[in-house]
From TrEMBL:
Keywords linked to the UniProt accession: ATP-binding, Carbohydrate metabolism, Glycogen biosynthesis, Glycogen metabolism, Nucleotide-binding, Nucleotidyltransferase, Transferase
Protein name listed in UniProt: Glucose-1-phosphate adenylyltransferase
EC category: transferase
GO biological process: glycogen biosynthetic process
Site (Could play a key role in the communication between the regulatory and the substrate sites): 65, 104
Reactions listed under catalytic activity: alpha-D-glucose 1-phosphate + ATP + H(+) = ADP-alpha-D-glucose + diphosphate
Length: 420
């Protein structure tokens, strides 16, 4: 199909957003990992969707499965501006037992297979498969162009990581032209890159295919005995052996706020990584630039009043230093340092927040001291609660991570109150 349109306009983005993300502990008790809040007002899934939108892609689908309500509601509220009359679509595709009554989405590839008829209806030439649970900025048009220019059957988005850290990833061995010669899942001895033996190429879970090619592959895979119906486990290794698989370096398409900035990508799949990535945003010059109007992160922008800071007495001064405070917050006589407050957080007098990530609609009573913690949305923190001084004591009622980050949810607070 010859066309003078940009490749992105002939491409759809298929976002895999069905995962629970169990390493985020109780943060995913009521929501899927892609629906977890991040950065003061966005959700994790907004990064993949915004990258697609900013790259010129106007046809998208989101495959959901685990506890999808908050994710679906967020997309309905924040991503409902697509217009079908302009050939723009964002379809939400819950696992709906389309193949058989006992079959939900069995793997990442099966999530696409079960929606082949819907994808066919889009009339697209290329399909971009995305994970819905990573934080990064990337111009997918660059990757799609590379896919076409190299005549690849699949192009795999890859991070350049130190070789010793690559044992946690799916790793690509490549030749000088970045053609993938082997795909190794979490290898003990990862292969280095040509010309850079101390670095390895790790899969980001991002793939570009020509749709007609992938469609045939998925139908064949559906019939294969023993297949897990997974892109990383089945589809990509098959193409490495039988077709042309190409690696695309994230550094070639990463969107940066300045040329010398590092290529920013984070898997915020653990409480420690989630807390750190949020707190990093309070740095003087954060590596992830949420203020860049050239590559905005789109989200549901609820109507909130400006944040308010009140009281100006000794030990009762409402102020925030090196922090981010969202709309609808009332900081009443509270000292806040290196913290991130989402919308509608209300704090009260004589309290201290330090390196705290406070999700929306949290109320913090008087004489509270919270340090190095994550507070789930809607929690009511009772008067006198102290967190972050004694990890052993905190662990009696709250979830304390390996690095000493404390997760606080309402059932934990209720248990603490009952024991007082």
């Amino acid at each position: 199909m010859e066309s003078n349109k940009r490749l992105s306009s002939r491409t759809m983005a298929f976002v895999l957003a069905g995962g629970r993300g169990s390493r985020l502990k109780q943060l995913t008790d009521t929501r899927a990992k892609p629906a977890v809040y991040f950065g003061g007002k966005t959700r994790i899934v907004d990064f993949a969707l915004s990258n697609a939108l900013n790259s010129g892609i106007r046809k998208m689908a989101i495959a959901t499965q685990y506890k999808a309500h908050s994710l679906i509601r967020h997309c309905q509220r924040g991503w409902s501006f697509f217009r079908a009359e302009r050939n723009e679509y964002l379809d939400i595709l819950p696992a709906s037992q389309r193949v058989a009554e006992d079959k939900w989405y069995l793997g990442t590839a099966d999530a696409v297979t079960q929606n082949i008829d819907i994808i066919d209806s889009y009339g697209i030439e290329y399909i971009l498969i995305l994970a819905g649970d990573h934080i990064y900025k990337m111009d997918y048009e660059v990757m799609i162009q590379e896919h076409v220019e190299t005549n690849a059957d699949v192009t795999v988005g890859c991070l350049t990581v130190p070789r010793e850290e690559a044992t946690a990833f799916g790793v690509m061995a490549v030749d000088d032209s970045l053609k993938i010669t082997s795909f190794l899942e979490k290898p003990a001895d990862p292969p280095g890159m040509p010309g850079d033996p101390d670095s390895a190429l790790a899969s980001m879970g991002i793939y570009v295919f020509k749709w007609s090619y992938l469609r045939e592959l998925l139908l064949n895979d559906q019939e294969l005995e023993g297949s897990k119906h997974d892109f990383g486990g089945d589809i990509v290794p098959y193409i490495v052996k039988n077709g042309r698989a190409q690696a695309h370096r994230f550094t070639d398409s990463c969107v940066k706020h300045r040329s010398d900035a590092p290529a920013y990508w984070r898997d915020v799949g653990t409480i420690d990584a989630y807390w750190q990535a949020n707190i990093d945003l309070t740095n003087f010059d954060p590596e992830l630039d949420l203020w860049d109007q050239n590559w905005p992160i789109w989200t549901y922008s609820e109507i909130t009043p400006p944040a308010k800071f009140i009281h100006d007495e000794e030990n009762r001064r409402g102020h925030a230093i090196s922090s981010m405070v969202a709309g609808g917050c009332i900081v009443s006589g509270t000292e806040i340092r290196e913290s991130l407050l989402f919308s509608h957080v209300h704090t009260n007098s004589y309290s201290i927040l330090e390196q705290a990530v406070i999700l929306p609609h949290v109320t913090i009573a008087r004489h509270v001291d919270l340090r190095k913690c994550v507070v789930d949305g809607g929690v009511s923190i009772p008067e006198g609660l102290t967190i972050g001084q004694d990890p052993k004591e905190d662990a009696e009622f709250f979830e304390v991570s390996k690095s000493g980050v404390t997760l606080i949810t309402q059932p934990m607070v209720d248990a603490w109150k009952a024991a007082q």
